[in-house]
Hints:
- The complex is a heterodimer.
- Chain A is α+β, with helices and mostly antiparallel strands.
- In chain A, 20% of the residues lie in helices and 19% in strands.
- Chain A has helices at 23-29, 55-60, 94-108, 153-166; strands at 15-17, 34-36, 42-44, 48-52, 62-64, 67-68, 88-91, 112-114, 139-145, 148-149, 171-172, 186-189.
- In chain A, strands 8, 9, 10, 11 and 12 form a 5-stranded antiparallel β-sheet that branches. In chain A, strands 1-4-7 form a 3-stranded antiparallel β-sheet. A two-stranded antiparallel sheet of chain A has the order 2-3.
- In chain A, helix 3 (94-108) crosses helix 4.
- Chain A starts with 14 loop residues before the first strand and ends in a 23-residue tail after the last strand.
- Chain B is 41% helix and 19% strand.
- Chain B has 10 helices and 12 strands.
Amino acid sequence: MPETGPPPGTLPLPIVDGLRLDRPYREALWPGGMLRDAEGRGRRLPRFFYEIDSWQTALDTPLSPHFMLWEMIGVDVREAELLRTFPRYVPCAVTLMAAALEPFRAAAGTYVHIAVNGGYRSPAHRLSRLATPHCWATAVNVYRIGDDWLDTQAAIERYNRIACETMSGVRARPYGSAPGCVDDQLHLDLGFVTLVPHGAASEDGEPASEPP
Amino acid sequence: MTAGSLRMQIEKIAEEAGAEQVGIAFHDYETHQSWSCRGEDWFHAASTIKVPVLLGVYGAIHAGLLHEESRVHVRNRFFSAVDGSRFRVEASRDANSDVQRAIGRTMKVEELAHHMIATSSNLATNLLLDVIGLEVMQRLLAPLHLDGVELRRGVEDELAWQAGINNRVTANGLLQALRLIVEERAFSPACCRRMLDILHQQQFRNGIPAGLPEGARVAHKTGEISTAAHDAGIVFLPDREPYVLAVLTQWPPEAGRRHEAIAHISQRVFEHLRGAEEELA
């Protein structure tokens, strides 16, 4: 159940404590749980989420002047089935990612297209075996900017450079075919950032200790 | 026309066209004839492997792993069966641009299945193999006992091709796969009817259909690479039961007249079956 109404400065959506969601959602979202990254370092998952009641709400909700909520929640069949139906939940830090993308978009001067599975992915998503900022809603995969398809070294390096110049604290995966590199899209992330908006419930309570 | 003379005619067509190897098999539900000529010979499957992949997709749907409406991320990045290195489907070699245009977005499983068969989209094929998983698909196909089908990798995996890891079929193997569909014995009758619908949407009509009279409908899949040209399908003609036909051919890389040869063979088989039907009557 939603904890509170939206205070000023947050999205006009209910803010939900993931620990108080029904068990199937807790198992899929694993709020406050610990995921390991590729080097074995523990990363604590977000606990507070915006609740999205319908696709229409996602279509109608701006995160920033040029990015809408629907762009950050596109997933395919690899996402847990429960999380492909509404209501859906997205970590509150999704607003930070959208805000961080604004100067990048301004420098690019055109539309930035976020790929399916390229915004928020839950820890139960088949592509989320290791901790990835996608599970924090603080990463995007961009496959096209305006009419430029980002599937060449030149295009990826050009836009990586723009991202690093315009987005404070961003990590842009380098071009290449080795693990951790990209060759058919841009990957930009802010790291493992969590956001607890004003109006969110108290952070008392224990997160689940077992992975989903 | 006897089976012996049919064989001679087919060998003559193949020789005159310059084919190196021909494998043919048919089963007729009207006359209950089954016949093959080099039906157990193995060929590079080319795009006819998409028939077993279609079976695997509907096996996954039947098993509840997917739905026809499930959305799949269209991404042109796949992993070689040899060493897991990345490869792409070249847009210029894929007959279908609809799937290429959807990169970054999603398409439904049923749409990908349609494009895989109707326009032989390699990208759609690899996406379906990728989302289901090759090993899962092999497990789903195992109970069907398709002895003449080897599904070992996605399409356009050049590294695998160089390493000799290829998808292979025999004429009898493809015949068996198509019989499972038309006899509604693969997974469920509903799955089989959907697969048959998709096979009916085939857009390349210069093989088996080109040798048939007007009014024939063929649910089929073609396949072609530099050294092979195949067609395998279920032929529906007015006022008779259907027959299933698989024609596999191997050629020198420079050879032409491949489709013409398949169409001629299709025509001879049709005439043979019409003769058998008249004898029965």
